[in-house]
Amino acid sequence: MAFNPLVDIGVNLTHSRFAADRGDVIARAEAAGVTHMIATGVNAEESAAAAALAEQYPQSLRATAGVHPHYASEWDDTAADKVATLLANPMVRAVGETGLDYYRDFSPRSQQRSAFAAQLALGVSCQQPAFCHQRDAEGDFLSILADYRTALPGAVLHCFTGDVALLERCIEWDLYIGITGWICDERRGAALRDLVRLIPPERLLIETDAPFLLPRDLPKPPSNRRNEPVYLSHILKRIAALRDESLDDLATLTYANSRRLFRLS
Q1: DSSP symbols for 141-196
Q2: What string of DSSP letters covers 95-115?
Q3: Which of 93, 130, 198, 237 has the fewest CB atoms in 10 Å of its CB?
Q4: Neighbours of 229 (CB within 10 A)
Q5: 184 domain residue, yes or no
């Protein structure tokens, strides 16, 4: 391994695209130096599955528990109780994925806002950091987060694709910033390539968001076009080049940041 251990802070390991070879995916990541992976929960059922998977692989996996804005219409008292119970599980290290997505609008915006606020409140009561999602909803996202940020033990805006104004506000509020393979796309990721230099070292995190967002510039992309945490090192290399930093230094700081936010040993 050419550099220090890595943490993939966002990987959808319970997704159906990993059903046939999930164990192999985890093993490949571990062999490539991805020593920790945070399995993302996107609704109550998948959050329970992510927690169970983390219990199956306690050396390398932890999980989040929450309801993604795409599934905000499912948020009710039953879902809230399930998520709250999961947040008490020591293998679960954040509330989420939660937030707002006005790009897809798979759930009504009013339900997205109420589910987001309720999950941030759970994070405060359970003292769990928030794993946040935002797309085309900057104003409402910041407005809701403002009511909870100082009481949360931490928060990350994962898969950051926003503009400089959003980045500056997130930094002002001490949010961590998750960077994915979006930065490897010379078309969609052009703005992010410039902004990544502005992220303070102590706020930078890296992730694949697998099976989504396969880095577009992989030398040998898989035929199935599926992203995996094994490609996290490729994202690291791209960020290091853009920030003019060494791979070892960038690996060390993102590892330390991940351990701090998710309380990893």
Answers
A1: HHHHHHTTGGGSS-EEE-S----HHHHHHHHHTT-EEEE-GGGG-TTTTHHHHHHG
A2: EEEEEEETTT--S-HHHHHHH
A3: 198
A4: 28
A5: yes
Looking at residue 179, its pLDDT comes to 98
Domain CATH number, residue 12: 3.20.20.140
Amino acid identity of 184? C
Strands 130-135, 204-206: pairing kind? unpaired
Do 111 and 70 form a contact (C-beta atoms < 8 A)?
no
Strand partners, 176: 156
Residue 74: inside a domain, yes or no?
A: yes
Structural domain containing residue 84:
6-262
Q: How big, in percent rounded to 5, are the helix, strand and coil portions of the chain?
A: 50, 15, 35
Q: Tell me how many domains the chain contains.
A: 1
Per-residue pLDDT tens digits for 38-62: 999 999 999 999 999 999 999 999 9
**Average pLDDT of 252-256?**
98
The per-residue pLDDT for range 83-107, each reduced to its tens digit, is: 999 999 999 999 999 999 999 999 9
pLDDT of residue 1: 43
